[in-house]
Amino acid sequence: MTNRLWILLICVLTAGSAKAEVTFAREVSRILQAKCAQCHRPNDIAPFALNAFEAVLDWKDDIRRVVSERTMPPWKPVDGHGEFRGNFGLTEQERNQIIEWIDAGAPFGDEADLPEPLPDTGEWVLGEPDLVLEMPEAYTPPRGQDMYRCFVLPTDSDLNRFVSAVDILPGNRRYVHHVILYLDSSGVAEKLDADEEGPGYTCFGGPRTPVAADASLSALLGNGIGLGGWAPGTRPTPLPDGVGMHLPPKARIVMQVHYYARGGTGPDQTKVGLYFSKGKVEKRLMFIPIVPLDSLGRVSMRIPAGADNHEIKAEFLVPPLLDAHLVNIFPHMHLLGKEIKSEVVRLNGRVTPLVYIDKWDFNWQGAYSYKEQIPLPAFSRIRLSCTYDNSENNPRNPSNPLKTVTWGEGTEDEMCLVFLGLTFDRERLQ
Ligand code: HEC
């Protein structure tokens, strides 16, 4: 080979290596594993799996579209308002790499670069739970209306136990609108169930069980919500070490399922998976709701018919002695919601953003867990602001003709709510 040819070859080689091509094996497979595969895997909520190269090729045009339009992955919190664990939003670099890769003809690359395949965790994304509780028989909600139904799931244990993560597998994703898990140690829920025909009992508003004498503050404040809930899009995140949700001996989980069987109905048999805390638990996770109140302290809100940018505000003052740390936050509105934002204002005036969702989507709700727990010293004010579009320009508006919308549990009512999942600084369990 002549000298000149050598130089040419070296130029070509170095030009190629200056900007390494994005390949499936090296970059894209890793991005998909980290940001897509938890839903895009067999038997989960996404309609197809994105684990194998061939599947990804089949979907590449759609992937390019949804990634550019930012509709996938459906991570809702805006960056800079809370740092969350398990954030499955794409970084700018990841988004660009996916697009660049597809535009370059989606090259596979070198097989040796492939990451280890993700473990197959079966139908539960966190793997097999320590305890699975299931509705004893299937229930078919009545067609054409909202139905709140409570199902009693005995836990059958004499032990005080702590739960680190809860996952819920709706039996019928078309009609299950949300699920909240209450706890009952009184036995009242079983009586209510026995008094009513069919599986479970109707429980609009709450499970109608008494707040037990040993009830924690969370039961009083959080209406007895013991183990959190599920709404479309919620992904389970284990609690930090040392924090657990308390499951008292012989507790029954009262699972409130909100069915919205407008267009049709079908049988549902929802399952709950519990993952127990592994290490020593020092603090219980409590749930505190922040909601708009009127001057008499009643939950109240009103969105006029036709208003397309109506704001509702709420505020909560951390009481003296109840200094707390915020572990996670669950924002909630219904179909008119546009934006929801929460922040904490400390006594010294310092403001820390808690969460901000600027494009609310009822189909993608989550409990967001902080990377570092956020201190909420006594006398801090937690502010909540919700914005709604109750005009005919909102394609999701369920009311035709338009109507003034108030607080309520029905799909056509609204809510402006965050649940704060927190621990109290003074608590030390033995
Ligand atoms: C939290 C769960 C979840 C994550 C994470 C997720 N998806 Fe999806 N994806 C879904 C669900 C559910 C659907 C079907 C319903 C829908 O389109 O909203 C879907 C649909 C899609 C579609 C078809 C949409 C259409 O309009 O045809 C594409 C393409 C897609 N996802 C790509 C991705 C990619 C790429 C990632 C990661 C960068 C990702 N998704 C992450 C749940 C998820």
How would you describe this structure to a colleague?
This protein is an alpha+beta fold and 430 residues long. It folds into three domains: 16-113, no CATH class; 131-283, Jelly Rolls, CATH 2.60.120; 287-424, Jelly Rolls (Sandwich), CATH 2.60.120. It is 16% helix and 30% strand. The chain has helices spanning 3-18, 24-35, 53-58, 60-68, 92-103, 188-195, 217-221, and strands at 131-134, 146-154, 161-169, 176-184, 201-202, 225-230, 243-247, 252-260, 271-276, 283-284, 286-290, 302-303, 310-317, 324-332, 337-345, 351-357, 368-376, 381-388, 405-406, 417-424. The strands form five sheets. A five-stranded mixed sheet has the order 1-9-3-7-10, with no helix packed on it. The protein has a five-stranded antiparallel sheet with strand order 5-2-8-4-6. A hairpin with a 5-residue loop joins strand 15 (337-345) and strand 16. Helix 2 crosses helix 5 (92-103) and helix 4 (60-68) runs antiparallel to helix 5 (92-103). The longest helix is centred in the first third of the chain and has 16 residues, at 3-18. The relative contact order is 0.14. Residues 212-224 have low confidence and may be disordered. Bound molecules: heme C (HEC).
Summary tags:
single chain; 430 residues; alpha+beta; Jelly Rolls; 5-stranded mixed β-sheet; 5-stranded antiparallel β-sheet; 20 strands; globular; binds heme C
